[in-house]
Amino acid sequence: MATVSDFMQLMAQNVWLYGGAFLVVLSILVFVHEWGHYIVAKKCGVKVDSFSIGFGPELFGYTDKAGTRWKFSLIPLGGYVKMFGDQDPSSAGFSDEVMIGEADDETSRPMTEAERKQAFFAKSVAQRAAVVFAGPAINFIFAIILLAGLYTFYGKPVTPPIAGAVVEGSAADKAGFEPHDLVLSIDNNKINSFEQIRRAVMIGLDTPLNFVVERDGQEVSFTATPEKFQERDHFGFSQSRGMLGILGPAEGLHLSAIISVNGRDVGDVDAAREEILKHLDGEVTLGLRRSEDETASYVTRPLKDLNSGLFDEASDDYNHLIIMNEMKETTLLTYGPLTSLKEAVVETADITVSTLYALGQMVTGTRSAKELGGIIRIGAIAGDMATSGIIALITFTALLSINLGLINLFPIPLLDGGHLLFYGIEAIKGSPVSEKVQEYAFRFGVVVLVGLMLFANLNDIFHLLL
Q1: Which residues are catalytic?
Q2: pTM of the prediction?
Q3: Which of 55, 107, 261, 287 is paired with 461 by a 20 to 30 Å CA distance?
Q4: Domain chopping of the chain, boundaries
């Protein structure tokens, strides 16, 4: 298990990588989000006073010909677009007066009719709603563009949805899973990859799932209830997930890890190979040492044709690997632009639904709210993705963009969703929500958001300490 000192040492050794990756990803997503607000505001004829990456005092920037101040500010944990006529960047209030003069000798005057036409508060409900909605919307669009680009130019990693092996005594074993079962659907949702199985089980926790599999040319249906357990990553952050107990076809079993074959102990690689050769094309139970203090038994059916390397001392597979299924490789599927776009939309929708489902579990208590992560956890993951390569980092950026767009749509005052809620009420009743009600609502929103941020970041610290 990771300790605080382990984490701090890792961060100290990679401070530029982890901190840099986090700031670059966050700055890109903040720019994209705020640019959505900005571009739609301009289309609606709204003057934009400032476009800031970060909060607090300005570090540097410039003013364009339209009078918009583009700037980087001191605290790089968000950003804003301030519309003409708004009293602050959150659009929590507005004023129909224009401030003139220097800061130490500032006065005000009423807006002219031409200026009022450029003010955000003077636009129609539909236009204001469009400007606000554009921020979260473009986060989803940006994620789709990233994923579609990856699928077109790099490919989409796909592992066939086949059970290469079944963990003895697991939920899959109890439900009736057998080696080489091809999963066709889960809860009537079509399954095309092992990754979809993993996501459904991980998010579902210990909820019963209805499986349809293809076995020896026949469809077989059964219900499996995954086991819920706590998983810790190498940083020490934990999360609940469901465990079904099947290995994908791309996972081979190493002879060096095998300690028994059908209950018979084996002392070394040669003894393990000798026993396994007796059971090729048949079902066999392999005992494996997963760590110094953990063992597990796997039921599999290694095919003789796929394991010829066990006979050939010159083969790379001879000394260590049992291949469990003929569809063993994770493949990269490349598509044309239109198909890639479709796949990206589907993937974005799946991630959104899974995220909402997990948040719903936290609300109902099925999943612990302690799994909410803050800046420390996001930074750690961003650094990990950066070390894994540009493809992993792009994928993580798309995932974070989806989550940023989704969170901003929550109906909490100060967030975009809170503004949209007020605009919806205004459209229904024909007049704006009173300024007093909005003021109290925005104060409440500040308390909620600050509370959530403190809670999430304290979660990160406690996970590292415990």
Answers
A1: 34
A2: 0.79
A3: 55
A4: 4-143+397-465, 156-249+325-333, 252-323
